[in-house]
Write a structure and sequence with these properties.
Chain lengths: 230, 301
């Protein structure tokens, strides 16, 4: 048993797995938070206001929901490289750079989901608020409250996407041990070294976390259906 | 109208699926679909040499990234009838693929690991093929050009200069760690010594971005340096030292361990690549584009 433990310990030290788990979480939580603020605001604004080209924006948003992260990664890389337009910020190969890329990937997912639900349910909620004589702010608050499960669900989806992403963080972060190596890039490195067992161990940890997330998402979804039964 | 849209969409999906496959195939040894190799060799069918099928090789990123294999594969097909396919990974993974019987032959550069591979019964025999050399590259301010690697490594550690280690168990990674060890310096004491965990190309661009030093094989460095779109500012800081030589070996995967491997093809490749004619061809590769040969042939020596 002790041998097994030292084996596990060595393996964690070898690729810096504990650091990778930490980096994954810092990156995922920060980027999901920023994306949530941006995405919810964008989604609700998009529902509230009519303007020329709105349909086009919605279509672009839907496209971006499924954009390959590695494309965003390349784009951010080109932006941040020393000779790139934002090169002076020295954000390439840092967690902050990775958060920027992740935010660009997740924001459209959250805004798209929030918009899709708001477009369906907001008009009736607003109608109700109006008949009750609510102010503009009260209406908005009620809207957020009524949609809270969908918003949770959108955030959980965004977070799940963030921890499982590999292409963009590999390009922008550079997989530097102890500083920008995430769980997914560590797995990809282990595979390239021909070390499969440890890769699988790390993969299982990631899977368990994704599973817990899905569980949470389901929980919110169930809440939602219960609500609708009233 | 709707029907046409659906048909069009299906076609787009189908096309992107197939092109996606073709791009991936080179990296996946098990998938017997079209690879870039085949597209090159297809028209060169001569009536004299029969098509003998595929030979799968695991090799290092340096032989693929320098374009040497793209150059050799059609010649090999012409001479023997085998279609050479390869997956380019780090030496560690290449040998692992051999150990798992995924490939027929390996072409790598880490002598100690290669000898262990043969001693453990996974490979038949190791044949030296060629060598290239490593260069230490980095920003030219700070360290003067030299051929004394120990001086450079000492200065990097003492002045805590940024240094990028591949850290991916590749031949280059092993070589670099061996150099530090031989000098008795622990590179980790330098807080700016980092591990990229990526291939040579990615590590070179990272070094350029971070104005850091790194050890690279000359071929990959020259190829990237010559690429105007990259605009690499890295310069060669240290070269020419005897301990910077990088010997490539070719080993057939043991048909005793894995009867399903193409041992006949592997032997044909080894014989061909070590032949005098091919050795000359290897020695000429790169002279036209880079002004110097990327590999020095030394089979049988």
């Amino acid at each position: 048993m002790n041998e097994f433990l030292t084996g596990v310990e060595n393996f964690f030290a070898n690729v810096g797995a504990l650091d990778a788990i930490k980096v994954t979480f810092i990156m995922a939580i920060t980027s999901t938070f920023i994306s949530a603020v941006l995405g919810i605001t964008l989604g609700l604004l998009l529902e509230r206001h009519d303007f020329l080209g709105k349909k086009m924006i919605i279509r672009i948003n839907r496209t971006l929901m499924g954009v390959p992260p590695v494309v965003i990664g390349l784009l951010v890389y080109l932006l941040l490289m020393r000779r790139g337009p934002l090169g002076s910020l020295s954000l390439l190969f840092t967690i902050r750079g990775m958060i920027l890329a992740q935010t660009m990937i997740i924001t459209p997912i959250i805004s798209g989901m929030v918009y899709a639900h708001a477009a369906r349910s907001a008009p009736s909620i607003r109608q109700f608020a109006k008949t009750m004589g609510a102010s503009k702010w009260q209406t908005n608050l009620l809207l957020l409250k009524e949609m809270k499960h969908e918003i949770y669900f959108a955030i959980v989806t965004g977070f799940g996407r963030s921890i499982s992403e590999v292409g963009a963080v590999m390009l922008v972060g550079g997989n530097i041990k102890g500083s920008t190596r995430t769980m997914t890039t560590a797995i990809s490195l282990l595979k390239s070294q021909g070390i499969f067992t440890e890769g699988i161990v790390l993969g299982i940890i990631l899977l368990v976390m994704a599973f817990i997330l899905q569980w949470m998402a389901d929980y919110f979804r169930e809440e939602e259906t219960i609500d609708e039964n009233y | 109208m709707r029907k046409t849209m659906v048909t069009a969409l299906t076609m787009v999906v189908a096309i992107s699926f197939f092109t996606g496959c073709a791009g991936k195939a080179a990296a996946i040894p098990e998938t017997p679909v079209a690879t870039p190799v085949e597209t090159i060799t297809e028209p060169t069918e001569t009536p004299v040499v029969l098509d003998k099928g595929k030979l799968m090789m695991a090799t290092t990123t340096s032989t693929a990234d320098t374009g040497l294999l793209d150059y050799l594969a059609p010649l090999f097909k012409e001479a023997t009838g085998y279609t050479l396919e390869w997956t380019a990974v780090g030496t560690g993974e290449a040998l692992k693929m051999g150990e798992d019987g995924q490939v027929d032959v390996v072409l790598v550069h880490a002598k100690a690991s290669e000898e262990k591979f043969v001693a453990d019964g996974f490979g038949v025999e190791r044949f030296p093929v060629m060598y290239n050399d490593y260069v230490l590259v980095g920003p030219k301010e700070g360290i003067a050009h030299t051929d004394d690697i120990s001086k450079v490594f000492t200065q990097i550690t003492e002045e805590k200069l940024p240094f990028i280690n591949r850290g991916d168990d590749s031949g280059t990674d092993k070589k670099e760690k061996g150099l530090w060890k031989a000098l008795g310096i622990d590179p980790i004491v330098n807080p700016n010594y980092i591990q990229s965990g990526q291939g040579m190309g990615a590590t070179l661009t990272m070094a350029d971005e971070k104005k850091a030093y790194c050890l690279s094989d000359r071929g990959t460095y020259l190829k990237q340096k010559n690429d105007a779109t990259l605009g690499l500012e890295l310069e060669v800081i240290c070269e020419g030292a005897k301990d910077l030589l990088n010997q490539y070996g070719v080993i057939a995967v043991s048909p005793i361990k894995y009867p399903e491997v193409n041992n006949e093809g592997a032997n044909a490749f080894i014989e061909w690549v070590c032949s005098e004619k091919t050795q000359t061809v290897i020695g000429e590769y790169g002279v036209k584009d880079y002004g110097q040969a990327l590999f020095t042939p030394n089979a049988g020596k």
